[in-house]
Design goal:
Helix content is about 35%, strand content about 15%. The chain is of the alpha/beta class. It has one domain: Rossmann fold (3-Layer(aba) Sandwich), CATH 3.40.50. Helix 1 runs parallel beside helix 9, helix 2 crosses helix 3 and helix 5 crosses helix 6. The mean pLDDT is about 90.
Length: about 260
């Protein structure tokens, strides 16, 4: 899965991962979720529903991931590694916490983010306060689908409901909280009872809303069986570091 409003087509490192996994005799299934791209329509019954990143409801990721896992099971796969990139990390963790599916044997987190702090980092103080105020007002008025300005998205818009529910602190997705420091506690992260491989770069502009040692300390504190791998010179999309990413996966993922 991909970043906010992203899709797997634009993440070039997935080509390398596909080759790496299959060489390890592990099938690789990548899929988009309803948060893909910005605004589009979905035929639901006899009516059209507006979906995608600008209108996404984070908790709906349970439906998307469950659909992909059920598809894999129908094809005969019994042991599953659940992997997410960026915002996808929050989604796979949330899914595992809610479902505790015994077929999931390992989780791979590629560049997991503290989502509200990432928004604070990339919005000006004025823009952040305006978005917070407008989204709160519109949601209270029952206008959650009205679009507000949100420069983090390439189209510069997001629905008031999505921003209010998912991008302000203490929403359903706010359980990776680097802002709380190395002693911060996350009940959801602590609930993970299977191995977790975490990979990010030392110049990742989205993960590193705090210094790298704080991020590492927080993850090690909260995830019981956590293996953190840092790629020197890698940004959020692992630009020009695809082979290094593939080598880590090759070494860490067993048949």
């Amino acid at each position: 899965m991909c970043r906010i409003c992203g899709n797997f087509y634009e993440n070039r490192f997935l080509d390398t991962l596909a080759k790496t996994y299959t060489k390890k005799e592990t099938s690789f299934l990548t899929f988009n979720n309803r948060g893909t791209n910005f605004i589009s329509e979905l035929l639901k019954g006899n009516e059209f529903e507006i979906i995608d990143g600008c209108y996404e409801k984070f908790t709906d990721c349970l439906l998307d991931i469950e659909g992909a896992i059920n598809y894999a099971k129908e094809k005969g796969y019994k042991d599953i590694i659940l992997e997410g990139h960026s915002y996808g990390c929050n989604k796979v963790i949330y899914y595992y916490d809610k479902k505790k599916d015994e077929s999931i044997k390992k989780i791979v987190l590629l560049a997991p983010c503290d989502i509200p702090q990432e928004c604070i980092k990339y919005l000006s103080e004025e823009e952040y306060e305006i978005a917070k105020r407008e989204s709160t007002k519109l949601v209270s008025e029952g206008k959650k689908n009205e679009l507000i300005d949100f420069s983090v998205n390439a189209n510069g818009k997001i629905s008031a409901g999505t921003y209010y529910q998912d991008f302000l602190p203490h929403g359903e997705n706010d359980f990776i909280r680097y802002v709380d420091g190395v002693n911060g506690k996350s009940e959801i992260l602590n609930s993970i009872d299977i191995p977790v491989l975490v990979i990010f770069g030392d110049i990742d502009e989205c993960v590193l809303t705090q210094d790298i040692e704080t991020v590492k300390g927080y993850l090690n504190k909260n995830i019981k069986n956590c293996d953190i791998q840092i790629i020197e010179g890698a940004d959020h999309s692992y630009t020009d570091k695809y082979e290094e990413l593939g080598e880590i996966i090759k070494e860490k993922i067993k048949k």
